[in-house]
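Fold this sequence, please.
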Amino acid sequence: MTQTSPQPSPMTSPRPLRVLAAMSGGVDSAVAAARAAEAGHDVTGVHLALSANPQSFRTGARGCCTIEDSRDARRAADVIGIPFYVWDLAERFREDVVEDFIAEYEAGRTPNPCLRCNEKIKFAALLDKALALGFDAVCTGHYATVVLNEDGTRELHRASDMAKDQSYVLGVLDERQLAHAMFPLGDTLTTKDEIRAEAERRGLAVAKKPDSHDICFIADGDTQGFLANRLGKAEGDIVDESGTKIGSHEGAFGFTIGQRKGLRIGHPAADGKPRYVLDISPVNNTVTVGPVEALDVTALGAIKPRWCGTAPDGPGTYTAQLRAHGGETEVTAELVDDVLHVTFAEPVRGVAPGQAIVLYDGTRVVGSATIATTERAAATV
């Protein structure tokens, strides 16, 4: 990323800033852009064309970044009274997000494409282009808060309303990126209905538009079908903890650690209890299943750490979040040779390689890393 001199924290800047508002076509980004303009900043709206198929449309409340959304974003920009452009980042999105997503599943890992999009697209490709064009900040509709300290450093904190907090998917941002990030909704203590009511008061037609869900580039929500179409079906075995075959599948990529439904196992377990996916081995295309207790993870190792400020020095006690809508759990963590070693105060379940772990110190986001290995009470995976 281009090195630039420190800037004031965007929403509390003593001077108007040139702001590039990323407008997805949804209500949150539209209200964020409107608030930034109302605060006196020089705002320009931009919609990111991320699909190589310009005729694609959302299905119900799924998907985003389609032609329909670009038109909604343009109409919102017109109402706000700001310039608006569409930037084509489809090729970059395909390489950095979609292909990464497919490769991770092929390797037996469970990625988070929204987190990767924030890292590679919105606060790398988009921000780099914005800075090159003379903008001071990129504004989005994420619910999170940037805090400017007296010493000039910046911190990323949870949103004021924990129910809407999205800091987990922003945990990949470093301090330089935070210096140019604006989140006007982060200190909002209101319900989503009130955000919609604000949009309606502002005359924004997206006030009643459904939120997008799931993965934006899989508009129908069928992740397994999407992967099968790109990776092809590959029959393999479903085995129990002893290695005994108890079923078959059409592709290990169609499973995630902790999955219970859709296993299609021919006969029940001896104890009659449900079985869950414990391990996915792309090497021999095998899926291992077992009792829920076998999912208990006591520790993990995570790679590719990214810090929202200075990297921690030595072991520390934090809380950790393991999925976008998950709760917090107490951990101790230490960075050793660029690997984050994390130990849980109490065992947790549903932890899969490829997921992101985000560390918090109170409401402050310390940083994130990608889970590579897990240690379980009964075995190591």
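The longest strand covers residues 364-376. The longest helix spans residues 113-132.
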